[in-house]
Structure formats: C-alpha cells, structure tokens
Amino acid sequence: VRGGPARARGTLLTLADPPAALPRLDAYEGPDYRRVRVVTHGADGAVPAWAWTWEGPVRGAPLTDPWPAER
Length: 71
Prior knowledge:
By secondary structure, the chain is of the alpha+beta class. Helices cover 17% and strands 28% of the residues. The protein is built from one helix and two strands, in the order αββ. The protein has a two-stranded antiparallel sheet with strand order 1-2. The two termini are 25 Å apart.
C-alpha cells in the first residue's frame, strides 16, 4: 500500500530454500515489482516476510481477483 502505513490482505508462505527461491520469485514478478521486507500480523503474532510492491503507475491499473490460498 503506497503512501504509508495501511493494511493489505495476502497469503504467507514458508520457503524451503529462500536463497534459491527469492531470485526466481523476483524474476517471476518482473521488473515492475520490487521486493521489500514487511512485518505481517496474524494469529501467530508479528512475522517478518517479503512482499513484492508494484513500482509502476497505479492510476488506471486494473484490479485483480484475490489469489487463492491453496493451489
């Protein structure tokens, strides 16, 4: 969420091998996203995590359907 503190819903996943997975996830997200460190809050309390933020313009950007929790 741009512009300061706010909330966004998401799915928290545990990576088996973060050093191998993170560069692959960066490539999957593409150059318009930037990986940032965030703190998530849920039933287990505060948990550090990575999130990818959109770096492009937001005006006129289409909204997407929610990401399914299980694939």
